[in-house]
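Tokenised fold entry reproduced for everyone:
>
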Amino acid sequence: MDNYILWGIGLLAIPVGGFAFVHALMQRADAFTAADKLTKPAWLGITGASVLILVVFYGGLGSSGSLFWLAALVASLVYIVDVRPAIVGVQGGGPHW
């Protein structure tokens, strides 16, 4: 049962990393510095490497590269939770009530 849960988490992590990379790719470069975050090339490198690591060490937390896999997932989640909202806010996006 545990193996299925880890396999499912591993399967869900790849699209999360892919979303972070594609979102970073589609944003304006000046929005990153305006939001006081790392530059766009830095985030493209971080999220791109994260996607690569998530695919290579697909087994998730049960594989031999689980430390790399976990670091890649955390990097992708940091982009989604911290950087993405700041960039969207700088560009004037977000919820309009």
About this structure: The first helix runs from residue 2 to 26. The chain has a mean pLDDT of 89. Residues 1-90 form one domain.
